[in-house]
Amino acid sequence: MLKTRNIKGRRPRNKIRTFYSKSIMLFVVIFIIGTFGYYFLDKQVVPTLFSMAEMKIDNYATTLINDSIKRVIKENEVNVDELVTYYYNDKGEIISIGINTILINQLSTGVIDNINHNLEQLGVEKVYIPFGSLMGSNIFANMGPEIGVEILPIGTTNINYDREFRSTGINQINHRVWLNIEIKMQVIVPLATEQVTIDHQFTVVDNVISGVVPPNYIHVPEREILDVAPDIFK
User: Fold this and answer.
1) How many whole angstroms from its chain centre is CA 20?
2) Domain-located, residue 5
3) Which InterPro entries match (predicted)?
4) Chain centroid to CA 119
């Protein structure tokens, strides 16, 4: 009588071994894809999203600042010619320059209030960026699903003024006074957030002064910015 070999005990072990092998391979594949995906998001997608969002923020902030300053000047009937006064001697030489700091401070306060009011009205702004633009290709720039990016104003706005003298020719100097405006905003993209600072300059005085330049300005190179002594502005 022939005896049959019982091999039933081997089959489960082979199945378990095959299952473990497939599981390990699947885990390795998922790990590689996940690592590559994370690297792609961290090094390509997120930085590109921030860069594009910053461009949109910069354009928005520039428009907001310019409109706010023009509106404040118009509503308060500010005469920019009153911001600076030049004093000459009998020979036509500049002996003193006066900055109307009170008027500049009033202008700055009005601009800050106007900007903050507009930012409060804005709330959370959401812009959409096509996924194709994240690939760095001009062909696919406007293709693919759109990714939402939230722009949130933090509410921090700083402003101060600065000035410079620049030689523009013989017996001529260019005198500028401008406002430095800084706005902080927050960009929120999927998986990340970043604070963005927008710096903007707005020129309120830009005069070319003719006549005899004081001796301490005569030998200044054409492109060099001259720092005026503080007591001149008192």
Assistant:
1) 52
2) no
3) Sporulation_prot_YunB
4) 15
Degrees, nearest 5: CA angle 132-135-139: 60
- The dihedral sign for the CA sequence 49, 55, 58, 60: negative
* Cβ(180)–Cβ(162) below 8 Å: yes
Token couple for 39: 């690297």
* 72-106 pLDDT, tens digit each: 888 888 887 888 887 777 877 777 777 888 888 88
Q: Which two tokens stand for residue 72?
A: 């404040």
What is the C-alpha to C-alpha distance for residues 128 and 229, in angstroms, rounded to an integer?
50
Range of the domain at 171: 10-233
User: Hey, is 146 helix, strand or coil?
Assistant: strand
Q: Are 159 and 182 in contact (CB under 8 A)?
A: yes
Candidates 112, 119, 100; CA nearest to 204 is 100
Backbone dihedral region for residue 47 (phi beyond 0: left; psi -120 to 50: alpha; all else: beta): alpha
Q: Is residue 75 part of a domain?
A: yes
The Cα–Cα gap between 174 and 161 comes to 17
Does residue 208 belong to any structural domain of this protein? yes
